[in-house]
Specification:
Pfam families: Syntaxin_2
Shape: elongated
Number of strands: 0
CATH architecture of one domain: Up-down Bundle
Structural class: mainly alpha
Distance between the termini: 80 Å
Protein name: Syntaxin N-terminal domain-containing protein
CATH topology of one domain: Methane Monooxygenase Hydroxylase, Chain G, domain 1
Radius of gyration: 25 Å
CATH class of one domain: Mainly Alpha
Number of helices: 5
Family: Belongs to the syntaxin family.
Order of helices and strands: HHHHH
Helix content: 55-70%
Membrane topology: Single-pass type IV membrane protein
Main location: membrane
Amino acid sequence: MSFADLESGALQAPRRGRGADATRALVFQITTAVSSYRRLLNSLGTPKDTPALRDQLQKTSHKVLQLAKDAKEKLTSAAEADKSTGTSADKRVADMKLAKDFAATMEEFRKLQNLAIQREMAYKPVVPQGAQPSYTMNDGRSDFDKMPEQRALLAEPNR
């Protein structure tokens, strides 16, 4: 395969919603998204751990779950179709292997989600110095955002 083949349209992506190729493509997309999730997860607790990274981690998780929902529907319908007497043994074996691959990928994703929960609780994201939002509406006249030590120092009378 070359770039010329892709540009000419000789090889096209499988159409969504049709047959075993679409289901295979969904399982591949899930596997790819889980790999991306793992890569993002490995950045938690490092200097790269930012609110944007955590947002991307959450978006990737939602993407995996949506793809998994679609793949489960397709695998279920394929299993129902395989129950008919006219289905070849090769197709049944291929569908079972695809279902097994899907289950293994989802089990890996479940483990990664548990690890993500642990790391998100253990580490706080790094917020760049200039990007810290101001939560007070009264131009800094409130002491609520100060640390307890700072409040104690402010409460002491001037000497």
